[in-house]
Amino acid sequence: MINFQDVTKAYPDFTVALDSLNLEIKKGEFLFLVGPSGAGKTTLIKLLIREEKPTSGDIYFKDLHVNTLPHGKLPQLRRQIGVVFQEFKLLPRKTIFENVALACEVVGKKENEIKQIVPHVLSLVKLEERQNAFPHNLSGGEKQRVAFARALAHEPEVLIADEPTGNIDIQSAWQAMELLQKINKWGTTVIVATHNVDIVDSLKKRVVALEKGKIIKDDPEGTY
Predict the structure, then answer these.
(1) In angstroms, what is the C-alpha Rg of the chain?
(2) Contact call for residues 15 and 27 (beta carbons, < 8 A)
(3) How many domains does one find in the chain?
(4) Which of 43, 109, 139, 197: CA 20 to 30 A from 9?
(5) pLDDT tens digits, 44-88
(6) Is 101 within the bounds of a domain?
(7) For residue 215, how many C-alpha atoms fall within 13 Å in the half-sphere facing its CB?
(8) Is residue 102 domain-resident?
(9) pLDDT tens digit string along 22-52?
């Protein structure tokens, strides 16, 4: 489903974020990306959604060659990949309903569809009763669940969570992992970039460890 073939990403300051990386992720997998800060985890995610381009190598998402995808076809790629960032990136002057609805609007959903989709995904993350609240009224864990709802609103085939436990308490972190496992059981491919040793060691999912842009471990039922 996802294939990185000999991918290198170097920046003008000569920093090498990824170094001849090869990685295949199959449909329906649950995968942890681990490693120290600067190992290349976030760069890998940015390359997959074509926020950046590799210096060399090839990236494929199903039958799409991500490197050479024309700008006009990027929405086709990004509709299939939902991303939850550590900062959540919620719009402060919009309600929770409006924040999630915006994700539907940008992929061309009609108003009557949005009125059905948004309450549904908010119910999945147990926030249907908070739909008229604003982000500043929510806890860190609730904000994260809104971010999950927004990422799920266009029914992506892949859900990526970049450091999902970084800005929330431990109880909310475990709730987030339970939600991600549930999403994975529905058939969605889940990729989690994290530093959380306890969660990785407890769940025994596939673990891909990066260091200095290279894969140093790829264990199908691994630990940190």
Answers:
(1) 17
(2) no
(3) 1
(4) 197
(5) 999 999 999 999 999 999 999 999 999 999 988 999 999 998 888
(6) yes
(7) 18
(8) yes
(9) 999 999 999 999 999 899 999 999 999 999 9
Which residue in 200, 206, 156, 149 sits closest to 174, CA to CA?
200
Q: Classify residue 112: in a domain, yes or no.
A: yes
Is the model's pLDDT at 165 over the cut of 90? no
Angle of the 96-105 helix axis to the 111-124 helix axis, nearest 10: 120
Q: What is the C-alpha separation between 70 and 83, in angstroms, rounded?
A: 21
**Is 107 a domain residue?**
yes
Expressed as residue numbers, the domain containing 139 is 90-155
Q: Round to whole Å and give the CA distance between 43 and 86.
A: 14
φ, ψ (nearest 5 deg) of residue 141: -65, -40
Secondary structure E strands in the chain: 2-10, 16-25, 30-34, 56-61, 64-65, 81-84, 158-162, 189-193, 206-211, 214-219
Three-state DSSP string of 120-174: HHHHHCCCHHHCCCCHHHCCHHHHHHHHHHHHHCCCCCEEEEECCCCCCCHHHHH
CA nearest neighbour of 192 among 214, 178, 177: 177
Closest to 121 in 3D by CA, of 76, 166, 152: 152
